[in-house]
Specification:
The complex is a heterodimer. Chain A has a two-stranded antiparallel ribbon. Chain A is low in regular secondary structure. Chain A is extended and about 50 Å long. By secondary structure, chain B is of the alpha+beta class. Chain B has one domain: OB fold (Dihydrolipoamide Acetyltransferase, E2P) (Beta Barrel). Helix content of chain B is about 20%, strand content about 30%. In chain B, strands 1-2-3-5-4 form a five-stranded mixed β-barrel. The radius of gyration of chain B is 16 Å and the shape is globular. The chains are: A little secondary structure, B alpha+beta.
Chain lengths: ~80, ~150
């Protein structure tokens, strides 16, 4: 059995960083409040609904840079 | 390290935005409604951004309104970023309401207190035809034109 390896190539995007892009925001399962209702239609859980979740997702390791939920719009949370 | 993470995030968010996340059938695109209030949250997130405001209801009580906007990559193309709406600022939001009558809608555009027009929209609100319709009605010239606008068209 051979060990597998991979090479990741990336390009820095300081413009996105400046624009407030945060990691984890692409995870629909943690950041989306849409669901399919009994009739098969898409609906939303809205603020105040018990199923509503913070659309900014969750943070496993809030002390790690880039992981904080602390958003630009509300520094108190 | 953080730039690596941001770059990886950028790649993923761009690829993630390539598919439609859900239909827009829950919104009534035959109606435009104006809601005016104060920003409480600007969730600059995928799969959709959401703007949440507090607005006075007909009974005078404050109610929460939520508006679904574009995914990050689309919002960014339209000049909207994570700093575009600040908690506490007054905004006027024009949207297509939810058919079920709850306090939410598809975000069409936002006019800030200084008259700045912003448009982090997608789906049924994001078309040249829709933009032309707003222009024709005079809604984009200035925030004051919205005073005569709103609830149906």
């Amino acid at each position: 059995m051979k060990p597998q390896s991979a090479v990741y190539v990336h390009e820095s995007r300081p413009d996105l960083e400046e624009a407030g892009v945060r990691i984890r925001m692409w995870e629909c399962t943690t950041s989306s409040n849409s669901y399919k209702d009994a009739e098969g239609n898409t609906q939303f859980y809205l603020p105040g609904d018990p199923q509503y979740k913070d659309p900014r997702g969750f943070t496993d390791f809030p002390d790690i840079p880039g992981q904080s939920l602390n958003p630009i719009f509300d520094a108190e949370q | 390290m953080s730039k690596t993470i941001v770059a990886a995030a950028a790649a993923l968010l761009i690829s993630g935005a390539a598919f439609a996340h859900h239909s827009f059938a829950m919104f009534d695109s035959s109606q435009h409604k104006l809601v005016e209030g104060v920003v409480t949250e600007w969730n600059y997130n995928n799969p959709h951004s959401w703007l949440v405001i507090e607005a006075p209801g007909a009974d005078g009580k404050t109610t929460t309104w939520s508006f679904e906007g574009a995914a990050i990559v689309h919002a960014a193309r339209q000049g909207v970023n994570g700093k575009s709406y600040v908690k506490g600022e007054h905004v006027r939001v024009v949207m297509h309401p939810l058919r079920d009558g709850r306090n939410a809608g598809a975000l069409c555009f936002v006019i800030k207190e200084d008259g700045t027009f912003t448009r982090p929209n997608d789906g049924i609100c994001n078309s040249d035809a829709m933009y032309a319709r707003w222009q024709e009605k005079g809604w984009l010239a200035s925030g004051k034109h919205l005073d005569t606008h709103p609830t149906a068209d």
